[in-house]
Amino acid sequence: MNFEQARFNMVEQQIRTWEVLDQDVLDLLMTVRREEFVPEAYRNLAFADVEIPIGAGQVMLKPVIEGKALQALRVKRSDSVLEVGAGSGYFAALLAARAEWVRTLDIDPALAKLARRNLADYGVDNVTVLEQDGALGFQDAGPFDVIVVSAGIPHVPRALLEQLKPGGRLFAFVGEAPVMKARLITCVESGHFATEDIFETVVPTLKNAVRDDKFTF
Fold first, then answer.
1. What integer pLDDT is reported at residue 216 of this predicted model?
2. Full-model pTM
């Protein structure tokens, strides 16, 4: 398989046509080698418009969804980032290429191990992978400029919003099947938030997702 041609086709035929037009994002998706984070059995699908199973009921999201999330978040070199749901480590690698530092959390030991190994093998040195429940964030290291929840949650817990800096952005897939909303929440100032629903989709739900916190956007 010609990975470089497949990567080019992914960016030009899938991601760009889904109105991901930020050239920095497109360049990033051309640079970070997605196939290095895909399980060997699925490597030929690394650039296909499909979710890729990675174990524990979780998946690598479709490339177009990753592109839309990156475009919405506008990650800057000075940003500190929290990712909830480490998965294969690929999205953390994308974030790390733009941010100062990324902490990614996964409650599943096998996925935390997978992400840690993939990131180390790829030479990413500004990501910390922690095996722990991230449903309520990571208060010890907050507040953050960017928070990403890489799986579905029924609503956005108050605890996560309180870990955003003023000007910080949170991206999450909110709701339950058959429809979830890819939602961007911006902390306008302490305690005040602006919300934008960018598109609709369905993704696997975060393990141990919080269901009893009524504070939602």
1. 42
2. 0.93
